């Protein structure tokens, strides 16, 4: 398709502007906490496992306005929310999973995050063997000379994460504990990135509306040669979407049958990442903060981090992927990734549905 004009609106923000705004910050009030804990007690009394909870099982009528505000800002506003004030120290881990999953189930529909059928994923540094456990390409190397790690494995390391999107309408991260150093969330508007590319190099911007080969290695497939083609940028009925992870593109490049990137394509990727860095801002998450990001209009990354076990400073986030009831329509050629591209559809996540949902 041909992009003829920038996409306007509150989703096309620059880092300095959003950092000086509070439209994306919400706070849980004592009455909200009380209602969450009442729903938690109800679920515990009924003996419902956290991963079987539905919105009906976890009623939150007093949070209706807040949930509506969150949904609207994510889809029609700037595409991000920080929800503050969940007293995470008050609950043991099973209670926290139940409470967080129950809240998430009221905001959207949790979808599977990997081929293991996980609906809630703890994000922490799992050590030097993450590649062996979560995917690596032995005959391809990273800059440090180690095997090429899947996107999934990189997430569970303490290394930096480049700007990317997750395969879901909204990704939610609850901060349970923060690292001793680093681990700062970096976020930018993918809409603003596209607009700036269009202004500087419209020829390169147009390339990103064409199909790019990606690999399903890691989250979906054992081998890198399970590939598909999908544009990085898309427009449908006036709505923008971007799905981007350089790791998936690089993994596909290790497959012999996949055409190698042209010089222009490589230049387009380099420019996209450079502009994303220029337009980004940093969001520091404290214990009890929940970050919600609309994957269609934001990119997110992470700075490297260091834990200090002795001081009790070990980074732990809980992640949900949510299909949203007020989501946008997507281009028809995005079915290869999303399955259902209709507005408001339950979509995204990993299509394999295992017998064990735990």
Strand tally: 19
Report the biggest beta sheet as strand number plus sense, adding barrel if it closes: 7 strands, mixed
Q: If you average the pLDDT, what whole number results? A: 93
Shape: globular
CATH superfamily: Clavaminate synthase-like
CATH class: Alpha Beta
Low-confidence stretches: 353-358
How do the SSEs run, as a string of H and E? HEHHEHEEHEEHEEEEHHEEEEHHEEEEEH
Strand content: 15-25%
Helical fraction equals 25-40%
Cα distance spanning the termini: 42 Å
Radius of gyration: 20 Å
Structural account:
The chain has helices at 15-19, 30-46, 64-76, 93-107, 130-134, 151-155, 190-200, 202-207, 246-253, 263-279, 335-338; strands spanning 25-27, 80-84, 109-110, 121-123, 136-141, 147-149, 161-164, 170-177, 181-182, 185-189, 211-215, 227-231, 233-236, 239-242, 281-283, 290-294, 298-302, 305-306, 316-323. By secondary structure, the chain is of the alpha+beta class. It has one domain: Clavaminate synthase-like (Double-stranded beta-helix), CATH 3.60.130.10. Strands 1, 2, 3, 4, 8, 16 and 19 form a 7-stranded mixed β-sheet that branches. Strands 7-17-10-15 form a 4-stranded antiparallel β-sheet. Strands 5-6 form a two-stranded antiparallel sheet. The longest helix has 17 residues, at 30-46. The model is unreliable at 353-358 (pLDDT under 50).
């Amino acid at each position: 398709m041909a992009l003829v004009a920038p996409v306007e609106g509150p989703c096309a923000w620059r880092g300095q502007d959003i950092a000086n705004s509070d439209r994306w910050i919400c706070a849980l009030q004592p009455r909200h906490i009380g209602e969450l804990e009442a729903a938690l007690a109800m679920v515990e009394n009924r003996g419902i496992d956290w991963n079987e909870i539905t919105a009906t099982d976890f009623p939150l009528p007093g949070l209706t306005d807040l949930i509506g505000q969150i949904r609207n800002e994510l889809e029609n506003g700037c595409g991000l929310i920080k929800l503050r004030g969940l007293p995470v120290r008050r609950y043991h881990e099973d209670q926290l999973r139940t409470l967080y999953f129950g809240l998430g189930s009221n905001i959207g529909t949790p979808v599977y995050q990997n081929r293991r059928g996980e609906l809630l994923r703890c994000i922490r540094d799992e050590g030097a063997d993450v590649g062996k456990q979560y995917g690596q390409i032995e005959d391809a190397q990273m800059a440090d000379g180690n095997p090429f790690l899947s996107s999934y494995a990189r997430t569970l390391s303490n290394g930096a994460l480049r700007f990317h999107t997750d395969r879901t309408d909204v990704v939610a991260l609850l901060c349970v504990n923060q690292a001793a150093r680093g681990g700062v969330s970096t976020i930018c508007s993918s809409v603003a990135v596209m607009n700036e590319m269009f202004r500087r190099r419209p020829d390169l911007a147009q390339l990103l509306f064409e199909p790019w080969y990606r690999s399903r290695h890691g989250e979906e497939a054992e081998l890198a040669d399970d590939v598909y083609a999908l544009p990085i940028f898309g427009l449908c009925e006036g709505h923008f979407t971007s799905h981007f992870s350089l790791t998936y593109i690089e993994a596909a490049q290790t497959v012999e049958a996949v055409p190698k990137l042209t010089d222009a394509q490589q230049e387009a990727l380099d420019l996209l990442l450079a502009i994303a860095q220029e337009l980004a801002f940093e969001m520091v998450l404290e214990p009890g903060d929940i970050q919600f990001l609309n994957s269609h209009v934001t990119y997110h990354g992470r700075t490297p981090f260091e834990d200090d076990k002795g001081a009790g400073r070990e980074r732990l986030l809980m992640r949900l992927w949510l299909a949203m009831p007020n989501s946008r329509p997507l281009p028809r050629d995005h079915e290869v990734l999303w399955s259902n591209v209709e507005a408001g559809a339950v979509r995204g996540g990993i299509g394999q549905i295992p017998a064990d949902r735990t």
